[in-house]
Amino acid sequence: QQVEIDPGSRLVPAAPVAPLLHKPAGLPPQAALTLPAEHNRWASDASRVPIPRALAAGHRVLLALPEPASGLTVLSQDPRIVRRLTEEAAWVEQELIADVTGTMHPDGLARLGRGLVAHGQTLPPARVSWQSETRLRFALKGITPEQVPWLCEQVGLRLQALRRIRIGSVPMAGLPVGQWRVLGSAERF
Q1: Which tens digit of pLDDT belongs to each residue from 62-95?
Q2: pTM over 0.85, yes/no
Q3: How far apart, in whole angstroms, are the C-alpha atoms of residue 87 and residue 134?
Q4: Rg of the chain in Å (alpha carbons)
Q5: What is the DSSP string of 47-103?
C-alpha cells in the first residue's frame, strides 16, 4: 500500500479532554482512570470526542472522592481545569447527598451552617438541608468529602452513603453509575 500525506497538513496537538465519570462506591479514586472506554460511554453524551488511548498517562483524578463514596468525578489533563480543581478547589462548591442514620441534635443544622471546629480550626460554614428523613444535602466550599462523616458525627448522625451530584456549576444529572461523558465546551467549574 502507498500512503500519502497531504502537503498542506500540519501537526496539531489533540485538544485536552475532560471525562466526567459517575464513580461507583467501593472504587479506589485512582482506579477511576481505568474506567472511561467506549463500551461504558453514556449514550446521551452529545460530544463525539474520541476517548484518549492512554488516558491514565496524562490525566489526573481531580477532587477525588473517597473509596466508599460515589458520584461525579473529574479526570483531566487540561491545565486550566487542573488549576481550578486543585489550587482553587477551596472556592469551588461541591454538592453532596448523604444517607444518614441516627437523630440529629436539635441545633445540628445551625451548627453546620456556622462552621464546626476541627483540630482547633473553624471549618467553613456548610449549607445543609434535609431531603428526606434519612437524607441530607450538603453544599460545601473548602470542606472535602472525606470530612463529611466527621461532620455528621458532630451532630449525632452516622453516615451510611455519600454521593457527589455537582461540582461548581457542572451537575452529574442523569449520568448512570460506572458511565462517563465528556465535559462540554460551554461547561465551567
Answers
A1: 999 999 999 999 999 899 999 999 999 999 999 9
A2: yes
A3: 34
A4: 20
A5: --PPPPTTHHHH-EEESPPPTT-EEEEEEE--HHHHHHHHTTGGGS-EEEEEEEEE-
